[in-house]
Amino acid sequence: MRTAPAWYSQDMASAGFLAIGSGPAGVSAAETFRSKHRNIAVGILSDDPALPYAKPPLSKQFLCGEPTELELHSAGWFERNDIELSLGVRVAHIDTATQQVITTGGARYRYWHLVLAVGSTAVPLAVPGGESALTLRSFADAVALKMAARHAATAVVVGGGLIGCEAASCLAALGVDTTLVAPETVPLQRRFGVDVGERVVKMLSEAGVHFVGAAQVTAVEDAGVTLDSGEALGGELVVAATGARPDVRLAVAAGLVTHEGRVVVDEHMRTSAHNVYAAGDITIAHNVAAGRPVIAEHWRDAALQGRVAGLTAAGFDSSWDRVPGFSCVVGGFTLTYRGWGGRHDACTVTERANGFRAHYSLQGRAIGTLDATANPAS
């Protein structure tokens, strides 16, 4: 891949559509725009050196050692569709007044339409020795974790969220004696509540994962971790699944309107700056179906928002009107959620022959549904 697009120029006439970020939002936006305009320059800038890939399988099939296709498109696809893909390029600044993107190397890319789709960064494990814990946000992270698991007999996963539960399940499936530690009493408590969390503990146990709840890791050492109780947990491998934070640094520096750490966009993915759009993890976007701004942090939603941004930039009417949703795999179960997320004040769980269903509501209004279904191979 070239480090600078062929259409790179100081001449505004050669500018076109530019996406920052090679995840689902950025690639979907570029692909959609290209499908509507064959003769306008389209480019993607990404600080990730890897060819654009799907992230959900990293903590599922890939880490578990199962066959999976990670690439969103082949290198040849980008070439055939005349989308200039520039990898390993870090953007330093967006100048919305002159419609230019400036990289840390000093290169300048002019744009007519810009989509900001940089995603999130891992929240570090902020304890002594925490920098030695492995994370799972990128393909490089997943490769490092998978290789480390081959030589580890024990592991500690810190964090009881979706990634933590999936990673712990996979490590246990690989034969690693794995313990999951979370500050909540049960995994996924903040997202799905105690009733569901207790069932997740059982899923993890059946998968061979030990769960330690209501505990804080205070230090990471060579032989494992130390908890706030003073207890030491052995772990040749320590994984920090301590959450992710939207990367809004470029947006803030460019003067885009943000709210509580996210870029504010309308239902068409427009930001407060002319011809600048945002999609994916970094946004709080107006959802037509919900009738209000919604935070959606998952792959499917990012791809949908990217499509809306690409269509809007291309001059077509498009709005984000789908109900957000995602799925994850915990042990022998697939959990599928559809809804608006956020706070709920009531949860009703209904048992089923192959799992359960949880209905969430807030002040009597339905806001989401979670289905847990046993996988056929279980």
UniProtKB/TrEMBL annotation:
InterPro entries: FAD-oxidoreductase/Apoptosis, FAD/NAD-bd_sf, FAD/NAD-binding_dom
The keyword Transcription regulation appears for this protein: no
Co-factor(s): FAD
Pfam families noted in UniProt: Pyr_redox_2 (PF07992)
Gene Ontology terms: cellular component: cytoplasm
Keywords: FAD, Flavoprotein, Oxidoreductase
Molecular function as annotated in GO: oxidoreductase activity, acting on NAD(P)H
Residue span(s) of domain FAD/NAD(P)-binding: 20-304
Name of the protein in its database record: Reductase
